[in-house]
Design a protein that fits this description.
The complex is a heterotrimer of chains A (336), B (340) and C (60).
Chain A lengths: L1 H16 L5 E7 L6 E6 L8 E2 L9 H15 L12 E5 L1 H12 L8 E5 L8 H7 L5 E7 L2 E6 L2 E6 H4 L2 H4 L11 E2 L15 H7 L3 H14 L5 H5 L24 H13 L10 H5 L7 H15 L29
Parallel strand pairs in A: 1-4, 4-5, 5-9
Antiparallel strand pairs in A: 1-2, 1-3, 6-7, 7-8
Chain B lengths: L1 E6 L3 H11 L1 E8 L2 E6 L25 E10 L2 E6 L7 E6 L1 H14 L7 H9 E6 L26 E5 L3 E6 L2 H4 L12 H17 L10 H5 L7 H4 L8 H5 L6 E8 L2 E8 L20 H20 L9 H5 L6 H9 L2
Parallel strand pairs in B: 2-6, 6-7, 7-8
Antiparallel strand pairs in B: 1-9, 2-3, 4-5, 4-11, 8-9, 10-11
Chain C lengths: L1 H15 L16 H18 L10
The chains are: A alpha/beta (336), B alpha/beta (340), C mainly alpha (60).
Chain lengths: 336, 340, 60
Amino acid sequence: MENIDKKLREEAKRLLEEKRVDALVGYETGTLPLTATPCFITNPEDAEKLVWNAFCTQNLAKYVHDLISQHRESQKRVKPEDRKKKVFGVVARGCTTRSIVLHLQERQYARDEIVIVGVPCTGYVDRKQLSIIVSGEDIQEGTLEGDQLVVKTTAGEKRIPLQDALSGNCLTCKFNNPIICDVMIGEKAPAIAGAAQEYAEVEDFENLPTEERWAYFTKEMAKCIRCYACRQACPSCYCKTCFVEQSQPQWVGLGEDTTDTQVFQLMRLFHMVGRCVDCGSCISVCPMGVDLRKFLKKLDKDVLDLFESRAGSSMEDLPPLSRFKEHDKEDFVFNP
Amino acid sequence: MEKRLIKKDALTGIIGKIAADTTVYAPVKVEDNVLFKVLEKGDEPLVTLANTKNAPKNFFFPRTEVMLRYTRTTKGMEFSGGEKEAAEAVIFGVRPCDARSFVLLDMLFDQEKYKDPYYIDKRQKTTIVSLACAHPPYATCFCTSVDGQPVSSAGADILLVDLGDQYLAEFITAKGEKLLKYFGDAKADAAADQKKEAIAAQAEKEIKVQIPAKAIKPILDVNFEHPFWDTIYQKCLACGTCTFLCPTCHCFDISDEMKDGDGRRLRNWDSCMFPMFTRETSGHNPRTSQKERWRQRAMHKFKYYVDNFNAIACVGCGRCVMYCPVNIDIRKIVEDISKL
Amino acid sequence: MARRKFATLKRFLDYIGLEGDRTIFTWISASEGERFANVIKGVTAKVRALGPASKLVKKL
């Protein structure tokens, strides 16, 4: 990993020095043990901060979208002849590039406004899962030694296989290498062993009786505190004003009402049809541990099954809800 | 002050007995989260927990509160009160940092200029049983930097201190003394007091993080426009995790909900991190970006609250540090401000 | 594209545990009066059989 950090820093430094990018979004080491956090670099010297490891969780495509929209917005107040284009670099693993592909397909920005620094990925650590493994004890120190996490908690030192602490979406990931990129750092990562079982959980859930599925949905949504971290972290959730925040009409109440929370989540989830890249960002940021993936993965499965499409899997695979085929399945149509 | 000694294994039983007579909120493991919730039959209250994920402010200042209800009639609108009056309750297992948050919230909700009836009603009817931190549970704890102590009775009606082999129960207020009957009759001696003092001193030493929270007020006074504010907000997701889990954050938003002529007025938690925060009816928002919102958060905690109430609106529990999804660390922000 | 949205919506609502018969989709042309009547009869029969909705219904 040290080697990959070195290459990444060199590349980032070069991109900034050669002015090929105005700013670069990457990850730096966090202030808590075993964490990395998004960082924004404009000064070539700061490239030394960059890291790429199993603690880099967030899908940075979200920030790329934010930065470009903010820049474009700021240019509206500038005389047309003085307007400047800005190019943003981004450290991107497989799922991040899927989001970028989706943004490009949805015409959010142009390909020449971004430089993609591709990185191979073998999965990231799910902090909530890690916390469960250490029985909720405070993690005071931690290091990654090979494929083992060495974690020091109030209860003592513990060695945890990295594999056990990886995020659920990473364990069944089919897209762990960049789909598109301008520079690739390091060798491509090997395929993930569990990828063949990616829909196993969804299939199990589908087989439950209706009321059990509803009970599960209700239980999970009851955890939600409406902090909107899921929405905010999601690269596909880029509406300028979310329907939750519209007041004329008000689609959904703002309080802790059960139905309001369910409706918020339901609507957000359904906006992800053919748009969820299974990056796990919404799940990793959720402070309450709502099982959103159970529902998002279903959308992914249906889109693959019905329209043979997967969000952002290639530039040619266009968003399934923006196109159709004459013989799309219509066995659900009611014909009395 | 009444003081009692209780055996360690007796504590759960005592909580159970109180719960049989009155509503008790206690830290309970709910799936993978430790949360404050109403203790029901079969629930196991956690007595050796680190701390809960949610702050206990919810009991006095709920995430959603019905302020009033109304019905449209042929004679005009008819109004009725909000939720019925609060019942007597006991909150068990509040850590001293969280207990101190009640002292801070009292300054706002129960002050000379304004008395919040919803908050005060519940506050007066609730007894706080605090559990001192003999060993501060998190490496991120920084209560001593913001006028707190790991062993402190501020905001508590009863303070429990783990003396190793038994608990020392101190009955701080008259409200606390009402629960005296549940705690047996083993009066505490001077030795217990001494032991408590030693534990308190040791616990303070165990807090590793010190931040200059009290020194930054004069810096904030003169640096509203400082370029520093451009550097902290970029990675902020604008979610409400920090403010919703914070024991002292108390911004709210009032909205009406109507259905078929019946309506209710709600007070919901708001968050300065939300783009909707302080948006005016016209659509204009004086805080145009996350930069202004982040400045508001820092200013509110470390300057405005000090201006208004001479206290920092932070208890050092570390929840925002631990649960911020992108690791925006308030400790580092305070540190950086002190160097401006 | 509407068909695609409905195909996924119907499956999804069923998946989270709503009764499948509450989401009904069909094609009716403006000239198909009789078909329209039959569909509505069919829909009301299905919904009546399910009874009042209790899920996703907000009570003030």
